[in-house]
Prior knowledge:
Rossmann fold, alpha/beta, 47% helix, five-stranded parallel sheet, 9 helices
Amino acid sequence: xxxxxxxxxxxxGITEFERGYEVPDCVVLDSTYCSMGRMVxxxxxxxxxxxxxxxxxxxxxxxxxxxTVEDVEAFEAKLADGTADIASLRASxxxxxxxxxxxxxxxxxxxxxxxxIHDRVDKxxxxxxxxxxxxxxCYAYDKxxxxxxxxxxxxxxxxxxxxxxxxxxxxxxxxxxxxxxxHSDDTRWGERGxxxxxxxxxxxxxxxxxxxxxxxxxxxx
Length: 221
């Protein structure tokens, strides 16, 4: 029998319907390549007064580890074709060195106060560090729009062929999928049910996506 919302019991005051929202210490954000994830995250952090961290900024927190952006890029080049042997790479000294640097950087980022971390840590890791956390994903499906955005990157400004641009975008997503698999037991990167909030930036646009993230950070209704 179909439920008629007009005749259902008013849920006000019923505990099962009244869970309150608690502002997290951290939001971890994944994003598909060219979904404007970094731009959305940066705008959300400015609106919420939170700290923003990504790969480059995190490494600035741990200079004593000696891990550079170039080191990370060289390692991730091995992940681009989507056929990486995750078990072998996870056991490698190279990954252990890079991962240890990011783990320490995440600890230091969390110690500075509420923050959003893009693409370098998962929710379970933050929770294990004793902080509360919400996870989010920015994604986009509009291929023509993603191709245009890719051409703004110095990496792909020289490309114009749609097939080459699609392949480049695919390689960047492969890196993110594989990196997540390397440091997380949950390998469902980008899948529904993996995140607390998923934002289709094709639908809502950059600015409204940033507003949604800022509301998640601040608990605004």
